[in-house]
Design brief:
Order of helices and strands: EEEHEHEHHH
Largest sheet: 5 strands, mixed
CATH architecture: 2-Layer Sandwich
Helix content: 40-55%
Strand content: 15-25%
Shape: globular
Number of domains: 1
Number of helices: 5
Number of strands: 5
Low-confidence stretches: none
Strand order of the largest sheet: 3-2-1-4-5
Distance between the termini: 19 Å
Length: 161
Amino acid sequence: MLILGLDPGFAITGYGLVDSVSNHLSMVKYGAITTPAGMPFTQRLLAIRNELNDIIREYKPEAAAIEELFFNSNTTTAIKVAQGRGVAVETLAENSIPVFEYTPLQVKMTVVGYGRAEKNQIQQMVKMMLKLEKIPKPDDAADALAIAICHSFSRLTAKPV
């Protein structure tokens, strides 16, 4: 099963494609959709949609996993990130790709086995589990791969959003 993991945002949306066959994982592609700060916000959202559509058309993922949003301070940023996430979810739905959502705690528990794992621990486990030579960059792409890995191990009991 080809899984598209997404770490949503409006400036950077990390993505990672993981192929999962009988609990054997392999990285297909990862990267980030970036939008420049000076670009009008509506154009940034459109750019995310367009680039995500390109990835979907090229790789045809069978499922998508996305991180549930968690914010504890900046409401303005949270709303903008939520809008970027909404565009991603809508784009996946428009392409008939089932979407599954995971909390940061679920991702950490699945990938590292510890819910308070630090970012570097998650990145090291992603590198090891996918047999990569180096930690994926940017961090958002490594997070997206972790989210895809989380879904690969949770997919039998997960319910689409």
